[in-house]
Write a structure and sequence with these properties.
Belongs to the peptidase S1C family. One of its GO terms (molecular function) is serine-type endopeptidase activity. The chain is an alpha+beta fold. It folds into 3 domains: 3-8 and 189-296, Trypsin-like serine proteases (Thrombin, subunit H); 14-49 and 56-83; 87-185, Thrombin, subunit H, CATH 2.40.10. It has 4 helices and 13 strands. The longest helix is centred in the N-terminal third of the chain and has 36 residues, at 14-49.
């Protein structure tokens, strides 16, 4: 059985985080090298087989194929470099009694209860994310909850700001935060459209899975018009299904098309029961729905109906 989970992340222990790269990186390297080796071997074998009939030499054919492959990689690298500054890390923090809710407290004065993602909406400091990422802040009456937003500056520095809650819509799992930052350092994402998406087209997710900030995963659109539950218990219609990896900590981050335009907000994944691992069936809220709701949240703080 599989369970649908929202993709916020509980803090990961230092031991677990230290173990992950050791376990995963060698596999990734072997896979990348093996893929190139297999492709090149297959190409050369095919070329040798047809050498009598083809005017092209195997070496030339191999060079052309590898150049094309590198161009595709270069496009993805460029997409990430252009979009990643628009993606933020959101920490759900519980303050001690002596800490101020309007300032970044010391480590001794906080408990990080979870992490999620979000993205810069405009140069006025509005940040869009999932409601479930900041639900504790939205429900807090004690003044002990705080959302801290980390943004990437143009020079590569990371700045953390305390966010103000501007608006929420639990029925569509959306929320808007606001940070105080110079407009010149804020790079809003380019808004796309989810109206004309096709199953099979490439898509890219950027977020902070398990606290690893600015992580890129790739995949395709696997399905359209899906229905997923909201934190309010009502259904969210028209969700995008993708096999781009979405894990704990990705919630609220953008799903992008090949041009780097946002087409959805990564929200939920089916996990294998008892494992906590994604099954590869992941969902994003379509950007056309987000575009209808977010302006109301910025101006009014909520939305009564859609």
């Amino acid at each position: 059985m599989a369970t649908l989970k929202w993709c916020t992340c509980n803090p990961v222990s230092a031991r677990t985080r230290a173990a992950l790269p050791t376990q995963l990186l060698p596999i990734a390297r072997v896979t990348a090298v093996s893929r190139r080796a297999c492709l090149l071997t297959a190409l050369l074998s095919a070329s040798n087989f047809t050498l009598t009939f083809s005017p092209f030499s195997p070496a030339v054919a191999a060079d052309v194929y590898i150049d094309d492959f590198d161009e595709e990689e270069t496009r993805v690298v460029h997409l990430f470099e252009q979009a990643t500054r628009s993606v933020v890390c959101i920490k759900d923090v519980e303050l001690s009694n002596s800490s101020s809710s309007s300032m970044i407290p010391s480590n001794e004065g906080t408990i990080v209860e979870g992490t999620g993602s979000g993205f810069i909406w405009d140069r006025y400091g509005h940040i869009v994310t999932n409601y479930h990422v900041i639900a504790k802040l939205a429900k807090d009456n004690s003044g002990k909850q705080q959302s801290q937003v980390s943004i990437l500056y143009p020079n590569g520095d990371v700045m953390t700001k305390v966010a103000q809650l501007i608006g929420i819509d639990a029925a569509h799992d959306l929320a808007v935060l606001k940070i105080d930052a110079p407009g010149g350092v804020l790079q809003p994402l380019t808004l796309g459209s989810s109206k004309d998406l096709k199953v099979g087209q490439s898509c890219f997710a950027i977020g902070n899975p398990y606290g690893y900030e600015h992580t890129l995963t790739t995949g395709v659109i696997s399905g359209l018009g899906r229905e997923i539950p909201s934190p309010a218990g009502s259904p969210i219609n028209g969700a995008i299904q993708t096999d781009a990896a979405i894990n704990a900590g990705n919630s609220g981050g953008p799903l992008l098309d090949i041009f780097g335009h946002i087409i959805g907000i990564n929200t939920a994944t089916f996990t294998r029961q008892g494992s906590g691992m994604s099954s590869g069936v992941n969902f994003a809220i379509p950007i056309d729905l987000v575009l209808k709701i977010v302006p109301h949240l910025i101006v009014e703080g909520s939305i009564s109906s859609l």
